[in-house]
């Protein structure tokens, strides 16, 4: 797939993680948030008008995709179909509408991890986990529980390094879940810690739903942040996101290398 990009590993974007001395990044402006539906619709139309077929060169390994808050498998269907076209086995999370964790969060995540294991088991291959927005938090935490069974994690617009105040969906979360979205310090620290597998965070500075700074992972080794242009609600069918996903999925198992961009015009890769 043709795409344009830029790299700047020497000057990574500023990231902010909540600590005792730094405040979590603030949510995007309401003006930016208000244009999300229109921008996402235009991005979807652009995808459908310009979509081209891909050569199925994948190794067939399972790719489990988690939807964002308030959405279900239909929102990630274009991305799942794309993974299948590439020659991988795209799988939805199979849990219907994502309303957020219920009850005991640790027990809920353990049950989700067991379910994901059952989805990927028929292939006999290690899986990739992809999560959009809140779904990316699930992908990261499930990877920590399925040690040795996950080959990599890709998050898309996921605010793992912020707080509930770093997003514009607090009221929506409460309407869906019946409780306020709050992370205690210990949970916030756990969520901000990357899983022990190659982890790629794709984010947009023009995201109108979550703070882009909250999507930037600090660390070293096999952790990478990749910037694209796009709305939060349209990231799942953003062509630049798909180009990164295709590149990441094509890597051999246990042969991870950082993403390299060849064109300096469109998006940036920062490895921390």
Description:
With 272 residues, the chain is of the alpha/beta class. It has a single domain, classed as Alpha/Beta hydrolase fold, catalytic domain (Rossmann fold). The protein is 31% helix and 15% strand. The protein has helices at 30-34, 36-50, 77-86, 105-120, 134-145, 170-177, 185-192, 239-249; strands spanning 6-7, 62-66, 89-92, 127-132, 150-156, 199-204, 223-228, 268-271. It has an 8-stranded mixed beta sheet, with helices on both faces. Helix 4 packs across helix 5. The chain is globular. The chain starts with 5 loop residues before the first strand and ends with a strand. Residues 1-21 and 263-267 have low confidence and may be disordered.
Strand content: 5-15%
In CATH's first tier, which class applies?
Alpha Beta
Order of strands across the biggest sheet?
A: 1-8-7-6-5-4-2-3
Pattern of helices and strands = EHHEHEHEHEHHEEHE
CATH superfamily: Alpha/Beta hydrolase fold, catalytic domain
Q: What is the overall pLDDT average?
A: 84
CATH architecture identity = 3-Layer(aba) Sandwich
Q: Give the total of beta strands.
A: 8
The name CATH uses for the topology is: Rossmann fold
Distance between the termini: 26 Å
**Low-confidence runs:** 1-21, 263-267
What oligomeric state do these chains adopt? single chain
What is the 3D shape?
globular
| Largest sheet descriptor | 8 strands, mixed
- What is the domain total for the residues? 1
Instruction: Give me the secondary-structure category.
Output: alpha/beta
């Amino acid at each position: 797939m043709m795409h344009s990009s830029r790299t700047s590993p020497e000057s990574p974007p500023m990231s902010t993680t909540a600590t005792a001395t730094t405040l979590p990044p603030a949510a995007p402006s309401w003006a930016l948030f208000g244009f999300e539906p229109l921008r996402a619709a235009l991005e979807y139309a652009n995808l459908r008008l310009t979509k081209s077929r891909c050569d199925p060169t994948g190794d067939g390994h399972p790719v489990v995709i988690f939807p964002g808050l308030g959405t279900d498998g239909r929102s990630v269907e274009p991305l799942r179909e794309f993974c299948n076209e590439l020659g991988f086995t795209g799988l939805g999370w199979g849990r219907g509408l994502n309303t957020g964790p219920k009850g005991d969060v640790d027990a809920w995540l353990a049950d989700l991890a067991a379910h994901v294991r059952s989805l990927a088991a028929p292939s006999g291959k290690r899986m990739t986990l992809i999560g959009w927005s809140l779904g990316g938090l699930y992908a990261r935490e499930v990877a920590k529980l399925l040690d040795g069974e996950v080959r990599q994690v890709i998050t898309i617009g996921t605010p793992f390094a912020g707080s509930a105040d770093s997003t514009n969906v607090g009221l929506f979360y409460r309407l869906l879940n019946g409780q306020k979205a709050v992370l205690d310090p210990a949970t916030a620290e756990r969520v901000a810690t990357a899983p022990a597998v190659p982890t790629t965070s794709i984010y947009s500075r023009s995201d109108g739903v979550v703070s882009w700074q909250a999507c930037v992972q600090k660390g070293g080794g096999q952790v990478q942040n990749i910037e694209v242009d796009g709305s939060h609600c349209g990231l799942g069918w953003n062509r630049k996101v798909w180009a990164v996903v295709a590149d990441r999925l094509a890597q051999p198992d246990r042969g991870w290398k950082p993403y390299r961009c060849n064109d300096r015009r469109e998006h940036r890769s920062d490895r921390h």
